[in-house]
Design goal:
Beta-galactosidase, Chain A, domain 5
Amino acid sequence: MSSPKRMVMFFVLAMTIMVGSNMIMARLGLIPKPAPAEPAVNAAKPAVVASDPAKAVVKADPTKPAPATINPTQVVKAKAEPTLAKPTELVLGASDNSDPSAYQLEVHFDQLGAGVSQLLSARFDGETPDGVPDRKTRLQLITDDRLSLAPKSFAITVQPTGRPVEDGAFPTGEFALDTIRWEVVRDKADSPAVKAISKTLADKSGQVEGQEIAFRTTIESPNLTITKRFRIWKGQNGFEFDMTFEGDKDATIAYRLFGPHGIPIEGESYTANFRDVFFGQIKAGATELVTRQSADVVKNKADPERLQALPIKYLGVENQYFTVFLEPEPTPTPETRWDREALAFVAREDSKAPQKSDVGVQFSSIPLNVGPNRPVTHTFRIFAGPKTSDALTPYGATELASYRKNQWFNIPFASSLAQHVIAPMLDRIYGLTKSVAQLVGLKNGNYGISIILLTMTVRLIMFPIGRKQAMISKKMQDLQPYLAEIKEKYKDDKERQTKETFALYKEHGFNPAAGCLPALIQLPIFVGLWQALNNSVALRHSGFLYIKNLAAPDMLFTLPADVPVVGRYFNLLPFLVVSLMLVQTKLFAPPAITDEARMQQKMMKYMMVFMAFMFYKVPSGLGIYFITSSLWQVCERLLLPKITKKKPAAIDAAFTGDGSGNGSTAKLVPPPKPTGWLAKKLENLLDQANNERTIRNTGATGRDPAPPERNRNRPRPGKRR
């Protein structure tokens, strides 16, 4: 049995043993069920021991000092007890429609802290933790996590003195406005909490309808009234709010705004993008983007990274396809900025998997002077939606649409091509498939077919370069027996070996460096294609053949038990990709003449099988791209002899003779005749190409040029004897 077959049998047997042993041990009760994860309690958050948050009493844990970067040190009471509104009243927008001109979000508020408790998308469905689409639920961009002890998103705290200490934290006396119940502002006592509003579009082409809800609270020492107004507009991927600070006496205050947190993890079993925080800073008129993974935020929670030097343009949280962030309005400058610092915080820690912890961002203001008839109002815009260029352009945050994961080194132009060329091409091709589908009575196109057509389009555009690279590879394959002969003949004379090698290259017009240029040109394009598909929200929950979600692994069937590395599902596409790679290697790799070359080829085969497990959980859309690209390369290479009018080199690596290496008695062993129908057809094509004269074997006069004296007896590539 050959080594590749042994390797395949080894992996099949290993997987069978792992699946079978886990299943048997689980049935026998030898594998204990995992204990439910206990929520990580933030030691910095005080325990509230009252049913009414407005009358809460704070008990601090004396053994665990609370860092001032997350929680305030003082709870404040409102002047008057507000009326409790019904939860159904505290909702802006709607999530039961998919009309782009209607509301794109549904925002739920909580009187406790006047923050956002839940944020639903009207355009995107939810999914199970394994990444299976759940058409019955809406995507939650902010989840209502009852176990989290962090303040609600967009809640605030106030520092009455407005004097930050040297290390950037607020001093003692910060008021926790996230722990009190705010009053819902109504026009009349019996008026609804949400009122309809409208505004004129920026281009004055018409008006857009919206909704508004307002909250207010008043505190003492200093006597300060704070009003928060939230507004949402139809057709927008976000909403906005402003905060107004008013006082009857002169006072200097500062506030902390807790930004979004609670964005869900999508595809928890396979994704490499859990939850990240990011900060867009303004530097020399451009945006400098700082991204931190949740595991890094947890690691540095005792001493978080503080961004203070540059004005903050926006800050928020993201997963692979969606983001929620807030930005000051208007965009600040170094002279007009009102942010003092921005940092990340841990909303709920997962001690077993820090990369899955819930993290968020917070925004701290500079000291503000408030007095009679001198209110201060700060306005923020919130984006909540997909990371696409079209959606992010109105917010000036198109940087977030680029692929920014697992890039150990940057390929020049790859991200720009992915964002500005390849992603729009995918959308246009999908539009074409949609138009064709509507002709036969269907409503939507198909992104699986779009990926295939996109890959073929890019390959067709790159055909001249790919053809050139294939010709170079083929010529290198033809010269392998002669290179091996030179290496054997001059194995003790490296200098002579190098000279003879370059003389052979010159004789046959071969430049080894020429093969690098086509590869370098193609690299940004294909990396950009890979990034565009890996970052395309359009693939999310799009089906193709048996695949339910092109943004997730294909999940052919469910395994009886969890398998290490593999997980709960068997994915077919990674093995198809590797199989095609092995076929390419078998068909087009140069013949292994030496033992070293044979060993390298065996190692490459084993590495390809290993790659199937390394890329086992990549999105199935990428698997379709790799399969299409590999099939194109195979067809391109098989048709190369007919296209180039050159004789194929049917060279066997086994030379016979006296062993002197001079080629005088060297003979080529003819290849065996094919037996299959397809192989015979290919052989006929090659024979037809052999009967045609080629530019390589014909001089300017139409006669075969005489080979150099030293090579007359050496078998020439592409000629049979």
